[in-house]
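idk why but the lab printer keeps eating my pages so im just putting this in chat instead. protein + adenosine-5'-diphosphate:
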Amino acid sequence: MPQKYVEVATGLPVDRTFQYAVTGKETYPPTIGKRVLIPFRSMTRIGYIVKIEDEAVCEDPKPLVDVIDQSPVFGEDMINLAEWMKNYYYCSWGEALEAMIPGILKRGKSASVQRVVEPEIKVEPTEPFEPNKEQQEVLNEVNKCIDVSEHKVFLLHGITGSGKTEIYLQAMATALAKGKSGIVLVPEISLTPQTVERFMSRFGDKIAVFHSKMLDSAKFLEWTRIKEGKAKIVVGPRSAIFSPFEDLGLIVVDEEHEPSYKQDDVPRYHAREVAIKRARDKGIPVILGSATPSLESFHRAMKGEYRLVELTQRTEEKELPNVKLVDMRMEFETRTGRDVISRVMAEALKRDIRKKQQALIFLNRRGFSTFTSCPKCGYIMKCKKCDSPLVFHKEKEQLICHYCNFRAEPVEVCPACKGESLKYGGAGTQKVATEIKKILPEARVARMDSDTMTKRASHSKILGEFKNHEIDIIVGTQMIAKGLDFPKVTLVGVIAADANLNLPDFRSGERTFNLITQVGGRAGRGDLGGEVFVQTYTPEHYAIASAVKHNYHKFYDQEIESRRDLEFPPFVNLIKITMRGRKEEKVEKNIQKLYDKLSGRMPETKLLGPAPSPLYKLKGYYRWNIIVKTKDVVETVKNLHAAMNGFRKDGGVFLAVDVDPMSLG
Ligand code: ADP
Ligand code: ZN
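predcted complex ->
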């Protein structure tokens, strides 16, 4: 037998693989996709076979220690997908592979796990609806692609309640009937319990569900069920895109615009883009669904790269809720005091709650007051490590930093001028809840934000109580923006619609439009109709004005022009290079050195910066950015790797590269 060699990827952050010799003494024969033990420095490490070779590429490669797996952990398609991720997202092949498997498999052999008893969720089975005309047209096209294994990206644009989920369900049923399996990505399971329930009610125990808080052993069990062909449909957050199906027939990405599809740690992949790549390799359709598609996806649909399909009506002839703008500038001109809830919203709230209806009030800031300042000298209480204002939490009687969780006792005297009249300003969810209790003392009000949602079950508990009408009003952060469908909710309030607009981020308009649309979609789901109140200081801003009119196309037309003018995505791709360290001058010196190294070596790019990050000081680290604009990510990532090879930075300085970042901070 001729000597053979294997090329092994490791989880190390290095842009290369390592070659080892096969001795023939391994427990199992080496094949692509199996885990191996390799000698590395003076230790034994775990690695993944990505290639088999006949020739040695270096002199006398070291022998493998052993082959761990009887059958491969990764199919060749996943090995190739990981290679693509490495070339696009600036990570190592092994880092990409390790993102695809449960943690247990990264740590070694242990393949037997005790079956953990998860609480049985009883879901009543449901039957498919007769599709309406619009739904049927979409289904015909998708089903045809499933039938003949044709790759196509469908961008399914439909307002909330227009029947998108029903399309996912029926298309999945088609795939299943063909003996294929499917993946449904959702932003975060705990935020979309109703979507998960609907899949369970249709497909029962053929479903495997993943969520981010799941124990590793439970993840491994679900992974095994998929491998063994017992589960045919996976519903889960971004990492579910790596489910090890061999007979994949359809991928669905629900709420495709959601930022949570982007991983903010290495590998910094976007699950939607990985989904499209996986579907293309496999020759299958993928459905991207949203009421507010990302500019990137809609632009590609406009160019004809994706098939745009639209649902224009709510099912069951339910009207979209009536949206009322409340101009807060007028509000404060005509009344004294600074309550966070406008008079019109307060009146409507009283009216609806007294009629035994329900309301959701949205504000994307937790805590009571968002800053503490001295009216005499203007001093603002800030976190020393993050340089951001401390938020007053009334229940805990503490000032808390929302970035690093630093806590301090409230002070009575200004640390700067010793003045004695410190004031709390800016409103958080606690304050809104307090105000509502003043307006409507008899109302049962609950808060839903990460302060109240400390236990895993608290979420479903509050939603259950709301469903049983033991709660009248929920005040919450983005936790209540998605997926909730309660027929008695007739009023939805957005306390500060422009909170996002002032952020230094090219996506702030998009975020604002999305938020108003999503939150507004929670109203009027039943027969009682619904009303949405949007409080704003800039009612004329196109993101707000078009959201109020439910007009995505109008928003897109304006937003895309501004992106074109300013050269932002989708017209270019961005790569954010962040350097951080505890010594301010050191970071500055090193980022300048990196900039000098990069400039001239990446002719296809525009380099911006280096500049202090909008989040300049975070958890004790100073942060600087270089922003790269490119039209060819793979080429730029290649050049970046080459430039980095010879780049030496000082100790105590850390570097992160984020391709297609979600924010510039
Ligand atoms: P979306 O996912 O776009 O928000 P859904 O699929 O959840 O929309 O549909 C909204 C509501 O209409 C759901 O309660 C769903 O069960 C119902 N529905 C969906 N399709 C139909 C149909 N063809 N006929 C009747 N009801 C439908
Ligand atoms: Zn802090």
